[in-house]
Design goal:
This protein has two domains: about 160 residues, Rossmann fold (3-Layer(aba) Sandwich); about 140 residues, Rossmann fold (3-Layer(aba) Sandwich). Helices cover about 40% and strands about 15% of the residues. It has a ten-stranded mixed β-sheet, sandwiched between helices. Helix 4 packs across helix 5. It starts with a helix and ends with a strand.
């Protein structure tokens, strides 16, 4: 293998579905998800295992002689990647490549995301915010430009029917079109409906429950305005994808809470990467951060164009 700079110069992700692999079971589920996604898009698949080798450790100082610890480790990982690559090719008729670059996973995958069609990672365990390819890397990737990021957060054995929807969060902002477009494109390729969700309140749930009992006319006005935002946001996409069934949910609730509830039986949850409301995360917005770390299904985080 060449050095870090040379290896990354030779590694290209242009137009490919890139999937990060860290030898964990959750990353294997991500690979299986990426195989189906690449096949449905007729795109090549690039399997990437980033070897996070400490920069201040010279390989030849680790073992005596010419053979170093780095060499056997690379060969072992490459054999595993080769087996995984062969398995992906046998599952679908795909162009599949693999890469074993040295570097920081977030930096390497972030660079590849600039030219990729999509980047797929295995998500952290439910309720967890850690993991080599978990929310830490997802946060770092989300602040970069480039391809949509899919974090596969499926439980092993979770059975979802083909009729399960793609849930998409819509806020009516200028960053909504790429998010909506990703959801409709996925739904059209996989033959499933779209469930469009618009929720707008940052008020505590207890206060919202009390306000519903007040029967204020302003509540009806807000709901009508919200429906208008949703209809306007969806209009062009419904015409562009006439074969995709669309259902809508409008709720005066916290956006993250509503999306997570609707994602319970979803095939995929699609959100934008920007923040909303008073609470913001350093890298992901509060809604997308909640989705990546708490959703029970795969999550696609789509950047604004």
């Amino acid at each position: 293998m060449a050095g870090r700079g040379g290896r990354m110069q030779a590694l290209t992700s242009r137009g490919a579905v890139v999937v990060g692999f860290d030898r964990s079971e959750r990353s294997r589920r991500a690979v299986r998800w990426a195989v189906r996604e690449a096949a449905s898009q007729h795109r090549p698949l690039l399997l990437v295992h980033v070897l996070n080798w400490p920069a201040d450790h010279h390989p030849k100082a680790l073992l005596p002689g010419e053979e170093t610890l780095l060499g056997p480790l690379q060969r072992m990982l490459q054999r595993e990647l080769d087996e995984l690559t062969a398995g992906c090719r046998s599952e679908e008729e795909l162009e599949v490549r693999s890469a074993l670059p040295i570097g920081d996973p977030a930096e390497v995958l972030g660079r590849l995301a600039l030219d990729a069609a999509e980047v797929v990672l295995g998500g952290p365990l439910l309720g967890s915010e850690s993991g080599v390819l978990g929310s830490t890397v997802a946060d770092l990737l989300a602040r970069r430009g480039g391809a949509p990021l899919v974090v596969v957060r499926e439980r092993a054995g979770r059975q979802i029917p083909d009729s399960a929807p793609v849930v998409v969060g819509i806020d009516g902002s200028q960053s909504s079109p790429p998010v909506i477009g990703f959801a409709f494109d996925y739904a059209a390729r996989h033959g499933c409906p779209v469930l469009a969700v618009h929720a707008w309140s940052d008020l505590p749930r207890e206060l919202l429950d009390r306000m519903r009992n007040w029967e204020l006319p302003v509540d009806d006005e807000l709901m009508n305005d919200a429906r208008a935002v949703l209809d306007s946001s969806l209009a062009g996409w419904v015409q562009r994808y006439p074969g995709v069934e669309v259902r809508c949910v409008v709720a005066p609730e916290k956006p993250a809470q509503t999306l997570l509830e609707e994602a319970g039986g979803a095939r995929l949850l699609v959100v934008g990467s920007h923040g909303r409301g008073r609470v913001r995360r350093m890298f992901l917005g509060s809604v997308s951060h909640a989705a990546v770390t708490r959703a029970p299904c795969p999550v696609a985080v789509v950047r604004a164009s």
